Amino acid sequence: MCYCVSILYDIKFLFVSILTTSIFAKSYHPIQPTTSVKVFFNNSHRFTALKELNLPHQLLVIGLFVTMLAGIFSTLTNYILGFSLLMILVGVVFSVLQVILLYFCYVKKQYSANLWYLFVLSVFFYIIPLWFLGGGLLSGMPIWYLFLVIFFINTSPTAVNATYLGFFVIVVTILINILEYSFPHWVIPYKNQEQAYWDMLTSFYMSLIVCYLFLIYAKKSYDKTQDTIQKEKLNIQIKNRELFKANLEKTHQTEELLKERNEITKLNEVLQEKQKIIEQKNADVWASISYASRIQKVLLPTEDEIRAELPKSFLWYLPKNIVSGDFTYFQKVTIEQKTYLVVAVADCTGHGVSGCLMSIMGINILNQIVTEYQLIEPKDILTELDKKIRAALKQENTDSFMDMQDGMDIALCIIAYEDNSLRFAGSKRPLWQMRANKLTEIAADRLPIGGSLYAEKIFTQQTITLQKNDRYYLFSDGITDQLQAKTRRRFSTKHLRIVLSDIQDMELAEQKPFIEQVFLQWQGSQVQTDDIVMFAFEFINFL
Question: Rounded CA gap, 424 and 422, in Å?
Fold first, then answer.
């Protein structure tokens, strides 16, 4: 029996060494066994409420629970072993105090540094009296003392608290030993050797079991932590590889983007050069068209030239694209001492440059027929004009349907000064007469000027005796074919008739701006469909 007690004493000194090592190890390299406690409680369905607390709060609950059990167990063992009533009372008070602290900490979920310090002080309040009441240094209390101190150190929230606690424990240990050595009569020895034996034995094995379980949980927590760390490292490596691949792909994409950017830059440079060439060509074309427009305007009569012969008249000329395929012909000639006024409005095939060339050709041919050939009958002029247009366009020897269509539509009037008569012949373009506020159409032949679809063309001619205040209108189909922006409907001949009938109380000079305004309102945002020309005059007796 004495031999066993001696072994237990040796174990006490071993635990003192463990305590000292643990204190300084905790100060510099914390073991962090709290992770095992956290894993244990988080994996248990019995501690759902505990999971809701933060880690320091959980540690405090665990410490109170363990010390409560230790207090209850030591109180029972002290009672069974027959220790003093004061020692049992201290155990009861300690156990009740731990229950109260556990209630506030776990049930009420209160957590503060004060609770932690009360917990530590309550443990020392329990151990120190039991040290002296239960046999002093030779009792089992040092074993519990060492175990609880190790538990405090390794479950403290931070390494700084553990360091302070370690020095506090060393100071308290030194003071207890000094007190026991200086006042040996304060120590209540065991009643007998058997009581000492069982106290040492139960204290040792119970603390050993608790330490063992604590180490098991710490190892499991450490292993799980290492597994988690390895998994995280593996995940990090995988993510790093993915990031590396993504970076490589981005690098390749960046290189491709740079290549594309360089290609785009080169293309832009080429496009800019081509743009400059196009702009230069456009400028050249614009200059050519502008020059063609000036030439065409030189060939066309002006309103001043027209009003010199026909004071009451207007000319509305509106090309679609700068130059026009529509034209007005106005020429005063004297043949066999008789004066005639040749007036015509023509609509050539196409518009723009092509129409402009056709109109210039038509004007030149008309000049040749009227001034050189001195033909004065409208039907003869149209017949000769048709022959020369077909010859100029070489339509007699063509198989192209489009070439067969080239030519012009024309309304041609010859006004004779001597007898105040008007002779008219038309190629698909009529002459409108307004007499006594009644609008009458003098129809034209449905035969075109130019083209090879007809083997023989015979134009008809009508003679009208002019009366005072008669008004006559010649126009191309550009105005009647104009589309409206909203409805896509044509202006139509019917609409033009209504407009002209409504404005007969106006002078011809006032009619032109009114007709232009009506036309523009109808057109709206719609582009102009075709070239437009309208010539109107009012008869005044020439004699």
Answer: 6
pTM here is 0.54
Q: Write down the residue that tokens 């993510």 correspond to.
A: 239
Q: How many CB atoms lie within 10 A of CB 266?
A: 10
Nearest to 70 by CA among 179, 164, 209: 209
- Residue 78: pLDDT above 90? no
CB distance 379 to 427 below 8 Å? no
Task: Determine the Cα–Cα distance for residues 238 and 158; give it in Å rounded to an integer.
Answer: 33
Q: How far apart are the C-alpha atoms of 61 and 19, rounded to whole Å?
A: 23
Contact assessment for residue 464 and residue 421, using Cβ atoms and an 8 Å cutoff: yes
Show Cβ contacts of residue 463 under 8 Å, excluding neighbours closer than 6 positions: 421, 422, 423, 424
Note whether 49 and 158 are within 8 A (CB): no
If you compute the radius of gyration of the chain from its CA atoms, what whole number of angstroms results? Answer: 61
CB atoms within 10 A of CB 174: 10
Instruction: Determine the Cα–Cα distance for residues 64 and 160; give it in Å rounded to an integer.
Output: 21
Q: How confident is the model at residue 493 (pLDDT cuts 50, 70, 90)?
A: very high
Helix (H) or strand (E) holding 335: strand 326-335
Q: Are strands 338-348 and 326-335 parallel, antiparallel or unpaired?
A: antiparallel
Nearest to residue 196, comparing CAs of 378, 5, 400? 5
- Judged on CB neighbours under 10 Å (0-12, 13-18, 19+), 402 is exposed
Four-point Cα dihedral 343, 347, 353, 358, nearest 10: -70
What's the confidence (pLDDT) of residue 281?
83
The rounded distance, in Å, linking the Cα atoms of 500 and 515 is 8
Q: How many whole angstroms separate alpha carbon 419 and alpha carbon 436? A: 21
**C-alpha closest to that of 346 among 204, 168, 474, 229:** 474
Can you list the positions of beta strands (E) in 54-199?
A: none
Tokens of 261: 């950017």
Q: Nearest 5°: CA angle at 101, between 95 and 104?
A: 145
Q: Does residue 312 contact residue 517 with C-beta atoms inside 8 Å?
A: no
3-state secondary structure of 424: strand
Q: What is the pLDDT of residue 151?
A: 60
Comparing 86-90, 142-146, 225-229, 484-488, the range with the smallest average pLDDT is: 142-146
CB-facing half-sphere around the CA of 527: CA atoms within 13 A: 4
Map tokens 């004060």 to a residue.
114
Tokens at 14, concatenated:
């071993």
